[in-house]
Amino acid sequence: MKLPAGRLTNGIAAITVAAFLLLYLTGQVDNAAIVGGFMPARLGDPALLEGMAAVPVWLTPLSCTFIHAGWLHIGFNMLMLIFCGRQVEHVLGWGGTLALYVVGAYGACLAQWAIDPGSTNPMVGASGAISAIIAPYALLYSQQQVRAIGQLSANLVRLLWLAGAWIAVQLMIGLASGAGMSELGQIAIAAHIGGFLVGLALTRPLLRWRFRKKPRAVH
Questions:
Q1: Which DSSP symbol is given to 152?
Q2: Tens of pLDDT along 142-189?
Q3: What is the model's pLDDT at position 185?
Q4: Which of 92, 111, 123, 161 would bridge 96 by S-S if both were Cys, CB 3.0 to 4.6 A apart?
Q5: What backbone torsions phi and psi does residue 69 show, to the nearest 5 degrees?
């Protein structure tokens, strides 16, 4: 299967891998996680890392996407980003794909904060933002036929089915990894769910924006 070109997707992947290699080879991954990872407790206590050269808390949803814990972490994330991202970019363009990635990163962190606002465990990785890319990929390339149910349109049924399936898969992954329900926040399950839901919500508006009719010049 030949993937379409995706300059933005390739660029994000290249910068993310370069950031990982720089931190990994210099032994600074743990330090970067503290000063650049998303720490929910910082939203309620902005002075939590006072005295440290920490990234401003409002930027950490973006900075944390460039920090990964290890080779498996970065490898799986970049595989999903390139495979899904290039195909989504082919449809939505670079602007729509960038909007998905950025808003998805913030939505992922918001979901992570919502389940444990006092957590001082820094969240790192691009999986939340990438989940926002996977959502439109699932919507755009799904071959499954969905029918309307009562007052629910076929499109809404598809959205609800994908959202429910993604949430179920994420919970099963969390439980299979040995985490209890109270520990799911430590493995960013909520971030994956939050990013995915953002992607589902933005797909149709971005499609309309991408293929909007431009006004014709009147001569």
A1: B
A2: 655 656 677 666 666 666 666 666 666 666 555 554 544 444 335 678
A3: 39
A4: 92
A5: -75, -25
Structure token pair of residue 186: 């430590």
Per-residue pLDDT tens for 140-154? Answer: 876 556 566 776 666
Question: The tokens of 150 are what?
Answer: 């009562």
| 149 beta partners | 152
Provide the 8-state DSSP code for 211: T
Q: How is residue 181 annotated by DSSP?
A: G
- 53 CB contacts (<8 Å, ≥6 apart)? 35
Structure tokens belonging to residue 16: 């993310």
> What's the 3-state SS for 99-128?
HHHHHHHHHHHHHHHHHCCCCCCCECCCHH
Q: Which residues of the chain have pLDDT under 50?
A: 177, 179-185
CA dihedral sign, ordered 64, 70, 74, 79: negative
Give the CA distances from residue 170 to residues 167, 173, 185, in Å, rounded to whole numbers and listed in that order. 5, 5, 11
Q: Alpha-carbon distance 65 to 31, whole Å? A: 15
* 75 contacts 17 by C-beta, under 8 angstroms: no
Instruction: Note the pTM of the prediction, 2 decimals.
Output: 0.84
Residue 145: Cβ-neighbour burial (10 angstroms; 0-12, 13-18, 19+): exposed
The DSSP code for 149 is B
Q: What single-letter amino acid sits at 66?
A: F
Q: Tell me how far the alpha carbon of residue 183 is from its chain's centroid.
A: 20
Contact assessment for residue 188 and residue 112, using Cβ atoms and an 8 Å cutoff = yes
